[in-house]
Design brief:
- The protein is globular, with a radius of gyration of 24 Å.
- The protein is of the alpha/beta class.
- It has helices spanning 11-23, 34-43, 60-70, 85-93, 106-126, 160-172, 189-198, 217-225, 242-245, 261-273, 299-305, 310-316, 333-348, 357-365, 371-385, 398-406, 425-443, 448-455, 459-468, and strands at residues 3-7, 27-31, 48-52, 75-80, 98-101, 179-182, 207-211, 226-227, 239-240, 250-254, 275-276, 285-286, 290-295, 319-322, 354-355, 390-391.
- Strand 1 (3-7), helix 1 and strand 2 (27-31) form a beta-alpha-beta unit.
- 45% of the residues lie in helices and 13% in strands.
- 39% of the residues are buried.
- It has three domains: 3-123, Response regulator (Rossmann fold), CATH 3.40.50.2300; 131-324, P-loop containing nucleotide triphosphate hydrolases (Rossmann fold), CATH 3.40.50.300; 330-468, Helicase, Ruva Protein, domain 3 (Orthogonal Bundle).
Length: 474
C-alpha cells in the first residue's frame, strides 16, 4: 500500500482521485491548499504526489521544488491543462516524474501511478548498502523515469538533419571523447547519448544517466560520488555514487549547466585525476568513465556569465552534437509517431494499426513545443482513448487540433474570412473581430477559456463566434 497525496484547488478532482486511489488499495489524502499540503509533508511520509500546476499561491515549479527539498525521493506527477504542456515538460527537468493532462482518464492515471511507484521502489532499493555496485548489470538508470525515447530502442529518423546526427554518432562513438549534446527539452538527448554508448567499445559496460536538473545542491555530491555511513546527518548507510556505478562504461549528465559551482570543482578534479572520493571517506577510488553531457542552452554562454567553469566546459567540449527541435524535422514526425504507437500498443495491450490522414496532417502542422516527449505522451493518451483501428482527431487534445488548423491561417494574407464591401462598416467590424479572435487564440496557445477571458466575453460566446467565422472547421 502506497501513501499518495493529491494537491488541487478543485475539490471535485481531489475527491475523484482520492476515491480512485483508495479503490486501488492506497492510503490517500488530499489538500486544496498547497501551503497546507507542504506542511503535512514535513511531518508525514509520502510516496507519490499528484499536484495541479496552477494553484492559488504557487505554481507547479515552486511546489515541486519545495517537495523535493522535504524529501527528494517523493515522486511528483503534475496535473495540467494541455496549454501548459511546454511548462509541464520543463517541470520534468526539475525532477517531476511525469505529467498528465486534463481531462483525466482512469487508465492514464493508473499507468502513471504504477510507473511512479515502481520508480520510487527502485530508488529505495538503491539506498541500501551494497544494493548498488560497480558490477551491477549495464541497465540505464533513469532518475525521473521519463526519457523522450526508450534508451534501449533507438530511432534517429530519416530527414537530412537525422542523417547528419547519425553520421556524427558513428564518427565519435568509437573514440573516448567527451561529448556535449545540445537540444531543447524532450528532443531525445539521452537516447543520442545511449546510441553513442551502444556503438562504442564500452557497450557491454554500464550506461548511467543522471538528471542534474533534479539534483539539489546538498545531495549532488552524494548522488554523483557516493558517501560513507555517518558522512552527514541522515547518512544512515553507505551509498555508491553514480560515477562508481558507471565504472568501465559511460555516464550521461543531463542538464549539466544546473550543477552548482562547488560540484563543478569536484567534477573537474574527477575528470583530471580519474579518481573519486566518497563523502566522508579518505580513500580514493580509480575510475574509468566516459562522460557525455547535455544542455538545452549553449554552455559557453554560461561560462561568460560566470555560472559555469570555463576549464570544465573545455574538458567536456571535445565533440558536440546539436539536436534540432521536432518542428524543424517534419520528415521524421510520422516515423517517430509510428515508433511511439508500437510502444503504446505493446504497453497497453492494444492493436491500433496507425493514424488516419487527418491526424497525420495535424501532427505535421503542429509545432510540438515539448518535442518527442510531447509526441510520445499524446500518442499514448490517444491509444488509451481510441476504440477504432486507427488514431483519429477525436482522441487528440483540442489544443493540438486547433493550433494545427490555425496554422493554415496567415496573419496578413488570409485574415479576411468574410466577403463584403471594403467600405461597409459591418464587414469591416466583422473582419476586425475575426482577426482579434485569431490573434488572441494564438497568443494563449488556443486555450479557449483564457482567450474568452482576455476578450472579456464568456466561453460560450467565444465558441459561437468561432462557429460563425467557421474557425471550428477550418
Amino acid at each position: 500500500m502506497a501513501k499518495i497525496l493529491i494537491i488541487d484547488d478543485n475539490i471535485d478532482i481531489c475527491q475523484l482521485l482520492e476515491r480512485f486511489f483508495k479503490k486501488k488499495g492506497h492510503d490517500t489524502k488530499f489538500f486544496t491548499s498547497e501551503v497546507n499540503a507542504l506542511d503535512y509533508l514535513k511531518t508525514n511520509e509520502c510516496d507519490l504526489v499528484f499536484c495541479d500546476f496552477r494553484l492559488p499561491k504557487m505554481d507547479g515549479k515552486e511546489v515541486l521544488e519545495k517537495i523535493k527539498q522535504i524529501d527528494p525521493t517523493i515522486q511528483v506527477v503534475i496535473i495540467t491543462g494541455y496549454s501548459d504542456v511546454k511548462t509541464a515538460v520543463d517541470v520534468i527537468k526539475l525532477g517531476a516524474f511525469d505529467y498528465v493532462t486534463k481531462p483525466l482518464f482512469p487508465d492514464e492515471i493508473l499507468i502513471t501511478m504504477e510507473k511512479a511507484l515502481k520508480n520510487k521502489a527502485s530508488l529505495g532499493q538503491g539506498q541500501e548498502d551494497g544494493a548498488l555496485s560497480k558490477d551491477k548489470p549495464s541497465n540505464p538508470i533513469h532518475k525521473n523515469g521519463s526519457s523522450a525515447v526508450p534508451s534501449k530502442q533507438i530511432i534517429i529518423g530519416k530527414s537530412p538533419e537525422a542523417k547528419n546526427i547519425q553520421k556524427q554518432i558513428e564518427l565519435v562513438a568509437p573514440t573516448n571523447y567527451s561529448v556535449i549534446i545540445y537540444g531543447e527539452s524532450g528532443t531525445g538527448k539521452e537516447s543520442i547519448a545511449y546510441s553513442i554508448h551502444s556503438q562504442s567499445t564500452r557497450k557491454d559496460k554500464p550506461f548511467v544517466a543522471v538528471d542534474c536538473g533534479s539534483l539539489y545542491k546538498e545531495l549532488a555530491g552524494s548522488e554523483l560520488f557516493g558517501h560513507e555511513k555517518g558522512a552527514f546527518t541522515g547518512a544512515l548507510q553507505s551509498k555508491v555514487g553514480q560515477f562508481e556505478l558507471a565504472n568501465g562504461g559511460t555516464i550521461f549528465l543531463d542538464e549539466i549547466a544546473n550543477l552548482s559551482y562547488d560540484i563543478q570543482v569536484s567534477l573537474l578534479r574527477v575528470i583530471q585525476e580519474r579518481k573519486i572520493r566518497r563523502l566522508g571517506s579518505q580513500k580514493e577510488t580509480p575510475i574509468d568513465v566516459r562522460i557525455i553531457v547535455a544542455s538545452n542552452e549553449k554552455i559557453n554562454g554560461s561560462t561568460s556569465k560566470g555560472t559555469f567553469r570555463e576549464d570544465l566546459y573545455h574538458r567536456f567540449n571535445e565533440f558536440s552534437i546539436d539536436l534540432p527541435a521536432l518542428r524543424d524535422r517534419k520528415n521524421d514526425i510520422m516515423m517517430f509517431a509510428d515508433f511511439f504507437l508500437a510502444n503504446a500498443n505493446n504497453e497497453l495491450g492494444k492493436q491500433i494499426e496507425g493514424f488516419d490522414e487527418e491526424v497525420e496532417g495535424i501532427f505535421l502542422d503542429y509545432n510540438w513545443p515539448g518535442n518527442l516527449r510531447e509526441l510520445n505522451n499524446v500518442i499514448k493518451r490517444a491509444v488509451l482513448l481510441s476504440g477504432k483501428n486507427k488514431i483519429t482527431a477525436e482522441t487528440l487534445p483540442q489544443e493540438i487540433v486547433f493550433q494545427s488548423k490555425f496554422s493554415l491561417i496567415d496573419d496578413k494574407s488570409e485574415s479576411k474570412p468574410l466577403n463584403g464591401d471594403a467600405h461597409n462598416l459591418k464587414s469591416i467590424a466583422l473582419n476586425a473581430e475575426f482577426e482579434k479572435i485569431v490573434e488572441v487564440l494564438k497568443k494563449v496557445n488556443f486555450n479557449k477559456s483564457k482567450a474568452a477571458q482576455l476578450l472579456n466575453i464568456d466561453r460560450k460566446t467565444l465558441y459561437n463566434k468561432m462557429k460563425i467565422f467557421n474557425l471550428l472547421n477550418t
